Fold these 3 entries.
Entry 1:
Amino acid sequence: MKPHRQEISQKKQIPKNQSPQKQFFWAVVYIAILFMLFFPYLPGFNNAESKISWQQFESEIISRKAVERINIVNKEEAEIFIKPDFASDPYFKKVFDTKIKGQLNPGPHYKITIGSLESFERKMDEAQKNIPITQKIPITYSNTSNWFWNIFGWLFPLLLIFYLWRIMFRKYAGMGGQSNGNSIFNFGKSNALMVAHEESRITFEDVAGLEEAELEVREIVEFLKNPKQFTRLGAKIPKGILLVGPPGTGKTLLAKAVAGEAKVPFFIISGSEFVEMFVGVGAARVRDLFKQAKEKVPCIVFIDELDAIGRTRGKGAFFSGANDEREGTLNQLLTEMDGFSSNSGVIVLAATNRADVLDPALLRPGRFDRHIYLELPNLREREAIFNVHLRPLVLDNNIDIPFLAAQTPGFSGADIANICNEAALIAARRKADAVGKMDFLDAIDRIVAGLEKKSKIISPEEKKIIAYHEAGHALVSTLLKHVDPIVKVSIIPRGKTLGASWYLPEEKQLRNKTTFIEHLCSGLAGRAAEDIMFGDVSTGALDDLEKVTKEAYTMVVYYGFNKKIGNVSFYDSSGQRDMSIQKPYSEETGRMIDEEVRILVNSCYERSKNLLERNKESLSKIADLLFKKEVIYKDDIDRILGKKHEKNNIHRVGEKTY
Ligand code: ADP
């Protein structure tokens, strides 16, 4: 018996568990349902059967002279009362019936919905044309209001609005309950995420290849750990440090490592989170962030994407609404940074990849006056980053870290972290015991060019065109001296591309005009090969043409590589022209630039075509091999070209191929 009783008591508790809002809502719903159920029995209600049309009324009721009187209600409805004498008439018998025996229904017995009062009266007059006035059907008029409907009509929407408001209120309040400040009453609260030092276990151990940057921030760690050592000598520690670098180079990581090393709490917020739709919210959030930070000294505040609020003020006045808000936020940030003294223990780190667009006021001494530049890692640094991210993986014996680093030029730390994870996933998918070299190479390919799409159906004709296209790129790249060495060529569709060539860029700081031109030639070689072999060109070159066009414009407009345009550059490092619609040069110069770009691209195309014409046999051989094997490597191309071609003697980074 006991379990049974328990069951009952549990069931009884269920309604209690409901929130008052839910109970209220269900109460409203029950009332509405009850009302609808009993509506037909409410006073004044007549069932739908008694509704008749004018024609029926005229032909069957007026003609029988059975109408005693008509009452028009609210100018909308005519209630028809039948003479009691007709109660026994078989036609009217039904309408006189009541539930109580022996009693006649006093009426109204019928109802007609009238279009307008005038037309109804006119129709009545016509129907009783030949009847003396004294015998005409008397018509009365009344106005009734159904109090229930009236009250219900305005109360129900009100209750509904009230209920919805309550739900919204609860939801927002629930979301903003703790710290993220999304409640409608918490607008001005900062959304910063606070990471207590016990939770953050990131230290300098986890940061690789950023030795110089590390060295600079170590001072901050020392200060946070032991401020007396600095204050004793009267030294002032910088309040704000700006980390500048491309995405994924470890700016956030470095800031977290500083907090982790110093064992202090860490507030992290993105600049874009300050800027809201409503003016003033951003400023309030900045104020709140610093208030919170001051309560937790010593601590680190990290503002990511500082350029979201810190852009030079007064720019882009067209979009003044958003601008006002951003300016307000920026001003508040400046005020807050001035507001605490140097050695108060709050250190603001900020990250951006566009230091050039920041407001000069932000970079003034006392604010973000120390800048640390993080760059994309070089070969040695990539090796170090690989070492960090390979640590948690179970690896094969044949992993060659310098080789992996050589295969990933231009990759950021985040990309490398991603490759390591991707390689582990690939290995897990093939149920391997350890992550192998091939998994890493697949992961690199996947990140560079997208996932292989072997299921994509490509007809042999199309495959042939793709093979020639890629063979064209491969051949020209191999023959030209200044193009990066090719590693492999594939015609397996990946992501959006149908074929791809992998190059191994040399890590150089400067590129000369010849390099640019040869690069354009190799970019156009795919289309040139199609042109030579098929006498026609395809849409496959879209991506190449886009890149070639951009590069050609860069050469002419930015680098001053064109004789006719001269050594001028229209590059704008301040980023102020981002929003301007006007071009920085005259119409005539514009036309000249377009013309010169066209000449440049055409000459590169012709050069590419010539080169391929002269090596048509090799082109066909490469394309055939590619058609057969789908993926070919540098060695295959070298074997086809046979003789020691020009490029063999140039220096290459990471000579190994796979
Ligand atoms: P940023 O803030 O510059 O955009 P993050 O600091 O968020 O980049 O980097 C993203 C991830 O990339 C990090 O969590 C880390 O795993 C990896 N990473 C980036 N740079 C490095 C580095 N120098 N050493 C180790 N890991 C790195």
Note: Residues 207-210, 245, 247-253, 351, 385, 388, 413-414, 417 surround adenosine-5'-diphosphate (CB under 6 Å).
Entry 2:
Amino acid sequence: MAARILSGKSVAESLHTRIQQVLARRAPDHKPPTLTALLPNDPSAQAYARAIRKQFSTLHLGYQAIRLEDTLDESEFQIILKRLAEDESVTGILALQPLPKGVSRGSLARLMPPTKDVDGVSFEQQGRLAIGSPWIAPSTPLGGLILLQHYGIEVAGRHAVVIGRSPVVGRPLALLLLARDATVTICHSRTPDLARLTRQADLLFVAAGHPHLVKPDMVAPGAVVVDFGVSVRDGRLIGDVDPAVAEVASALTPVPGGTGPVTTAVLALNLLRLAGLLEEHDFLPAAP
Ligand code: NAP
């Protein structure tokens, strides 16, 4: 069997069309929503920031970046976030990973103002997701589900296996899948006999950051495989799923060009929600 390749580019294009329609409807005196990216000194974060800036410029959305020094500590981080929280020209704030060593993911969750939290990292947005009432959900896992919906792949009632439990991808993905009525198994680095569980998946989601972790013999014939992994090897981007999995799976997201482009489009969608321009979409209910 040769898997159907689930390109993220066409998904991102359809989200862009939707975003442009929403922006076209706003009042003429309504300034474009603006994203502020907090940018660490890291090449992959900088590459991601360039992709966001390019896409936001095409969509006529505002974008600015603030560089975070490697030596930044929590109190300096708090000052930056407080200033951005009070700045009315800032609609959304995105803290790109990896955070400087002096700032933990826990302090990011505590300090991020929930009403400007474009990627759902604050305690409030994470808590809403945990109780099944999300308002802003993290863009990468939400993008994964939007991608499946775009291709007409059903989630409800199916067994979803998620590799990875980080607060950025795996954990919120598992919660979003639960909210969409999947039966969910979460795996991580301490899971014994990973292949025994992955072979039970109707839908396999991989977000481990471990290049080509998933091999063809770990996938049930006909399963759908969504690869979030991005690693650089010999100057090329590669995912967490060995491309030979395409011989077994019924559908597979490529790397690059799969979940990545959808993530940046969903960031723009989340920004519109923070700006009050997008009340509902298929995955998230109206604002509380
Ligand atoms: P992370 O914080 O390092 O978390 C990785 C998770 O995978 C952890 O829960 C870890 O388990 C688990 N894991 C690692 N190796 C494993 C193994 N051999 N077997 C089973 N589980 C394993 O990474 P992240 O921020 O979630 O990112 C994951 C990947 O997604 C990275 O490649 C990242 O670059 C990529 N990413 C992609 C997008 C996109 O738009 N496509 C966006 C964000 C991130 P423990 O919890 O036990 O350590």
Note: The chain has nine helices and eleven strands.
Entry 3:
Amino acid sequence: MNDLLPDQSPVWQYFERQVRALMGRYGYLEIRTPILEQTALFKRSIGEVTDIVEKEMYTFEDRNGDSLTLRPEGTAAVVRAAMENGLLHNQTQRLWYTGPMFRHERPQKGRYRQFHQVGVETFGMDGPDIDVETILLSARLWQQLGLMEHVTLELNSLGSNEARAAYREKLVAYFEQYADTLDEDAKRRLHSNPLRILDSKNPDMADVIAAAPQLLDHLDNESREHFDKLKALLDAAGIDYVVNPRLVRGLDYYNRTVFEWTTTALGSQGTVCAGGRYDGLVEQLGGKPTTAVGFAMGVERLVLLLETLELVPADVNHTLDAYIMAFGDAAEREALLLGEQLRSALPQLRLQVHCGGGSFKSQVKKADKSGATLALILGEDELTRGSVGLKYLRETRDQEELDRSALIEHLTSHLSRIA
Ligand code: ATP
Ligand code: MG
């Protein structure tokens, strides 16, 4: 679990600003749910025989003896909240969320025990138009961030529950022929959750998995039609994709459309966004049958990708415009007041007033370190003359002295020049 330090938060805020604005542009509304839920919610939705529920959840008993779990993902909680609050009754919903998720995994680059996701969940629309909308929304984010040429969209269809059940029998029969090559996880899952074996990253099983029967060849007609329409819509929108018949996703609630955006720039932690359709989940959790589709993206991986590819705009780390220095009691008092005056007059100005006194040399050092482009100087002389000294911190330009009344105008033009 990581601390997010002040030198990293500007990139996160840049990413979050882009996301928030984007969601607004598609008419998605934000939902915030608690970080804790009843353990049973995750077991019932994600599935008992999944990596998350078998070995990754942070689960504990509270003082009443209730079993609670730090949320490992967002979908289950959003469905619970939407059901409890009547958001799914005779209406459609387009929701988004962001926040920390918790999984007890082996920490490594791009994989942490507390990580952050941005996700969307939509309800009450059968698709494939809404499936495509969620993909277009994510694609627009990649475009805005400059990531589009570095990510690939992988698609698959898991079909209906019935088609999957029939396929499952074929798959079990196939894998039973190769029992020797299966690893421990795969053996354990052969009868409880054989589709998950397709998801294995074990290179020793790669050949057997590659030759396994494919779900895409066993789809029911409606799912086949849904998938064909989905691909046609993506073609029309100019979104490239790769059909990956082995894409099954690590959670049990998906049916029909599943997709992942992957990158080769982050080593084995290559999936930056993943989602799909989960038409059965609301009913499974006790609600009326409600179709649904959504995705979740990993914020740490996306920030890492932006940094690795040097796609963070330079001005993201520029967090201050001006720094006021003051020398002597009277000037220090005046500096605080001037700071407030300037903030009232220029709401876009990012200004810090030096606190704690010190020599000219030490204050200039702090001003320089602050990243500001301009230092305003208030000493005894300036006070008597009703003026302010101006020192340009990022250009070779002589110090100036300005009448207080001309200051706001000067700062305005300085701001527009550096913007
Ligand atoms: P993976 O196969 O990488 O374990 P997953 O299938 O478990 O991913 P999801 O549950 O679909 O992942 O979560 C969606 C996204 O959240 C992932 O694509 C990834 O970007 C991010 N993510 C998942 N687990 C972690 C983690 N432990 N640390 C950082 N990001 C994560
Ligand atoms: Mg995982």
Note: The longest helix spans residues 9-25.
